[in-house]
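RETRY 2/3 - previous attempt timed out on the joint model. Re-submitting the same 447-residue input unchanged.
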Amino acid sequence: MDTNSRGDLVINGFGASNGGQFRLVTLNGRGTVNSDLECMEFDCNGSGVIKGNMISERAKVNGHARFKENLESQRLTIDGSVSIEKNLLVEKLKVSGRGSVGGRVKCEEIIIHGSLTVGEDCEAEFFTAESQFTIGGLLNADHIDIKMFGECKAKEIGGQTISVKAKGSSFVGNLLKPFFKPQLEAELIEGDKIELQNTIAKIVRGNQVSIGPNCQIGLVEYTEEFSMDKKAIVSENRKV
Amino acid sequence: MSEELISKKDLLELSGISYGQLYRWKRKDLIPEEWFVRKSTFTGQETFFPKEKVLERIEKIQTMKENLSLDELADMFSPNITSLNYNKDELLKRNIVSTAVVDFYLEQEKGSLQFNFTRMLEVFVLEKLLQSGEINLEEGKMVLQVLKDHAELIKQKSCELVITRKLGMSSCLLLINAETYHFERGTKVVAALSLMTCMEEIKAKLL
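RETRY 2/3 succeeded.
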């Protein structure tokens, strides 16, 4: 890919472009790109709309960006809010603001400090969340580390090590507790090593399963170890 | 579909793999999405797999993962042909073809010395058939013509190549997604070759 001869696209204020290949794309203000966009660096500080597919190496959104098609990038940092209507393919995804993806998400590493909504499956090697998230399909990651700051939902969760913790309680947190219960809801959780807190699940299967306080689990199936907190409700547990 | 299914739990027990491995392989597309069959059971939803296919695949992954990384494995199982490009010497070095066959191939089609995957497959099939002595050079030309004419189909579907002979007349068929085939009594099936397997063999030699 010859990148030296490419130009930059800068939109300050109102503006629209038809897309194409660029080295640097900066949208300050309100920029619209009407078709596919390919660039090395993408920076959106105001409100941007990309109507085609985007491929970039580094993408950073500080304001608000909407992608009507797929987004593919090596890195994506969201400090503002981003909505992607189709699939997201990123090596390293960092969300400090709010991200929502209509289709699938495939990453190497996902770090969420804000909020993430995914319509379908979400795949990563490392999934670290100190936040709130909703995943419509399967959350599939090698290492899943969740500290909940709100309501988290996933249809299914699968991986090697899965750890779900409620965040440390603060004064403000306690005041707001009735409204934002830090809680994870899932139908099925499967992994080799599972540690759960504040989780509602129908089925949990694993080798080593430890159920912490405030859990409501329908069925636990384990092969090696099982432990359970006094404040947890497990309807049935089976060693297989 | 009347394939025998196996539940996820039984599969893990039978093959001795862990949840972590299964999910990792799924992520790397080593186990295709279509094989995850969801069915409702009395405990809620459960996932099932086509037993024979999945066990065979797992065995393959387990034997090969010692010398290959998962990403390389993923390339190997993916049906879409990767953008590979090798020249004649590399093919010779990697034992995909012999000099005699590659020269015959080049003489026939007069292409360049750079081989993409489609051409690699063609020359590999020729190599297999010619070296085993199952077909002669004349028939080789016929096979090559069939492969060339249907190159697009071969890329996408699972195809089988069958060569028959009757009263000294030979003919070559390309079967697409065929289950079985039967011929009249006097016909002799000289060779039957699954192109899918050939592709996997080539990839195994390249990696």
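The two ends of chain A are 54 Å apart (CA to CA). Closing ticket.
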